[in-house]
Amino acid sequence: MNAGTVLSVNLAVPEPSTAKRVGITGIAKQPVEHAVLVRPPGPKTTGLHSGLVGDQIFDVAHHGGDDQAVYAYAREDYDWWEQQLGVELPGGRFGENLTLAGVDVNGAVVGETWQIGAELVLQATLPRIPCSTFQAKMAVPHWVKRFTAAGRPGAYLRVVQAGEVRAGDPVRVLDRPAHGITIAETLPGWLGRTDDVLHRLLAADDLPGGVRAEAEEQVAR
Q1: Which domains does the chain have, with CATH numbers?
Q2: CA separation (Å) from 17 to 23, 81, 109, 174?
Q3: Helix or strand or coil: residue 175?
């Protein structure tokens, strides 16, 4: 089933940051015109960090790795934020690798797979959890709370099958798990509430391994 289109592929432009001890951040991303290879980056702290060749991640303790290999955000959600904030928000402003149109990114079911272009297959894993670097970049009062409350987190994805991606590629949903729990629904649980969503996730048979481990850790707390 067709879902939409890749509007832009965005890679990091490193810049200094005082939000964390790392001292540098790759949250600033700019669209590129060329095709970009996407492959599994491996473990979060010891692997290649980003799934996109040419992208850079510096806070490797909290970002990157196989379950956060790619970050996608919908143009439609940007349009909503532009109305809320009264500013223009170009693709890449939130630090996403893929800016998509016609894709219900937040409504993607955890474990849902997308084919992008001819070869690339990605799987929705986690919502984006806003952090102090994001707060500093946006410079909007109470941005972390505001972004979270809006329920438009965008989705992290893991690489099921490597391939190239470029602006204009079609996005097609290959499989949608029956458990029905969406990326947006999981956001409250990932912020520390052991609620019904976490227990429903753990009851599902088709979760990505890293997502199950994260949910189990939250329930244990």
Answers
A1: 2-184 (2.40.33.20)
A2: 5, 24, 34, 39
A3: strand
